[in-house]
Amino acid sequence: MNTFPGADERVAHLDIAPTLAASPWLDLWVRFEPGERVRLFTGKVELGQGILSAIAQIGAEELDVAYEQVDVEAVDTDFSPNEGSTSGSRSIQEGGEATRQACAQVRQIMLQHAAKKLEVQIDDLEVKEGFIHVRGTDIGVSYWQLAYEVDLHQLVQVKAPPKDRQHHRLVGQPLPRKDLRDKLMGGGFLHDLTLPGMLHARVVRPPAVKARLRVCNDIKVLALPGVLRVIRDGSFLAVVAQREEQAVKAWRQLSIDTQWDIYESLPDMDALPEFLTEAPHQQELLHDSPANRTDAVSISARYTRPYLSHASIGPSCGLAWWHEERLQVWSHCQSLFALRDEIAKLLALPREQIVARHGQGAGCYGHNGADDAAYDAALIARAMPGHPIRVQWMREDEFAWEPQGPAMVIDLEGAVDAEGQIVQWSQSIWGNRHIQRPGRRPEPGFLAAWHQGEGREMMPPVDMAMELGGGSQRNAVPYYDLPGMRVLNHAVTEVPIRVSALRALGAYLNVFAIESFMDELAHQSHQDPVRFRLRHLSDPRARAVIEQASAYAQQHWGWAPEHAIGDGQRGVGLGFARYKNVGCYAAVFAEVELQEVVQVKRVLAVIDCGEIVNPDGVRNQIEGGVIQVVSWILKEQVTFDRQRITSTDWESYPILRFSEVPLVEVLLMPQPNQPWLGVGEGVTGPTAAAVANAIHHAMGVRVRDLPLTAQRVVQAMP
Amino acid sequence: MPLLDINGQQYAVDCDTSTPLLYVLRNDLGLTSARFGCGMGQCGACHVLINGRSVASCDISVEACVGQTIETVEGLTPPGQALHALQEAFMQEQAGQCGYCLGGILTSARALLRHNPNPSADQIKLALDLHLCRCGTHQRIVKAVQRAASVLRQGEV
Which of A38, A110, A623, B134 has its CA 20 to 30 A from that of A641? Predict the structure, then answer.
């Protein structure tokens, strides 16, 4: 779902990048600034994935300036182009393409002016580090000299052809990240921002998912040093103090001095699959192709995942300041324009009266508490005009109240005929939809809005349409060529636990289930897992990543595909997917070792993501994606009782540590002439399946419920 | 008024002496390399060196720090100078994604390299094991510490 506005009618006839068509003024994207610098504007935000550096790389390439000359401005709703949310591994395709086209056009305009000025043909000119000169001479003029004469406040005229890839000097190079130095020096985050006279606030969240604030006795709190104000609105309760540690103390005191009506609203954690398959739901048929008549015997299996936390290392933070008749908001969220519009709606302000600015937060792997913290700050700032307010969520609140990645159940049934071909595939999916971002529904999208006033019920999340990537149904339809394939989604409408987008959304369990089941069918029909996949796969790029990965694992890991079962301790498994069935291709091998715990020793990821802007950036994303998923699959689950989430610190929600991370090897398939496909989420499902398949390879044991703990492996043993 | 010795400078801070060191570093002194992660000493994001040991600054009061030697990442590179070998090694390896955990990790790596100038990968992992990194940058971080160790051993600083 793209949330950026539609094309500006003046450029709607041009076949240009959608976000450029929505914001078609060139100076919204590119400006030449004193000191021979270029400032680029984008609607995409830095989440730790390196997008601003990649945008700089693309812009510098098209403009023929040095990478070091380019600064990319963080999103500010007052002047940045609206490019919707930074999500879905789409930032290079959307934001990168818009930057490329805008910069290509600006370069062309500058060349036209230079040609006129120098009285030569455009073809006689070349550009180096922003200096346009007549080829073979040092006669010329720089962008910055021309910038005095050329007004870039003009509409995009044409789809300027991007530079011929043969002439690329920057795109394709492993350039260093622009933001890393600052972070290594101790700065770089929204959390570090201080405003004049800034006050510190904490929000006291309810002690249960469903609770109403009955009595709040604020006498003691208001007597604490530095405490300025207790703000209550229904069940929303916040405290404001001069200093941060005073706000923390007050938060603790206020938590004690508050009485709540608490309700039991959560399902039995130990019977989640039963809850999900029996809860009210909307049914949708995602795929239905006719089956051949067959007498092949089918097998079936059920796969489940628990709720998962984003578990960013830094809890969410938001700042707001009602200053000079405007509300200024700072957030590390993924969609600043939606944030601004939603705040405007809830505070009944014209949106022009609000500006939302991006500051970097800790790694963001989907919709976490960032937007909520910003709204908390906005609410408090509204109540205390003139005072800049900083809200820092506490760790336990981040774990308990950020939206979780939804739990899911998938049932699969399939059959292989005597020739070894799959002849039937039936798949049912149960779980909530996956997107609860602000602005995606008419109901308020912020946590505090549900607690204000009389309170509001949590509304079910939404999915994007399948062709836009889906949500719960993402990658639900296998990428294999299968006859007799039926895929049915059951979108559960009861939402006991707040859920929203977590890296790869439904693709994580969908691919896990599909790729586990492919292995089960291969094993059952005595076929090796590589050849079994290949015989059902026609896309040559899909085949290529699997073949490449298989060859590498055989050559370097001593893996032999024909050995269906390993030695009881060590196993190797494969997982494959094309992300969203339209994005990057990933074939992943994992090697596990089973002793008292399940250890993933090494992982190989072979990736085809089309043309690569920054190979080191791609590797970094792949390495990180693999390690995060190994953490999910071995360790992670949100725990809860009938009232509340109970995994509220790093002991009750452990993640993978340094001593536990696998060695990750990444092989990139060069595709310099193919479109960008995005990369951030591509290995999520394949890695998970590779680990489960490796456990089966080691021991002949199939674990289908996540996380894959040693206990579950033991339980699965015959 | 408590007096703190941080990165070789003396700072008088005006706050309650029970205040966790983290908030004083960040809010009073602008030393933001120590970052709030959990407030419970579980994640490592707020680590600083106190008398050479890497400890959680969210978990120690200003009072307990008086008379101790405190070092933060800001002390690695004096203003206007080239990056310290440790930071430079992280740049060379591009050992960061979001970077939120790096202040604490640089701190523990610094402590490690002081008493073990030639650590193995396993020793580095052990020294960093209480530091959580959610982005999955671990293997680059281990390489960066090894690279820094090698550079520091050759005295190229």
Answer: B134
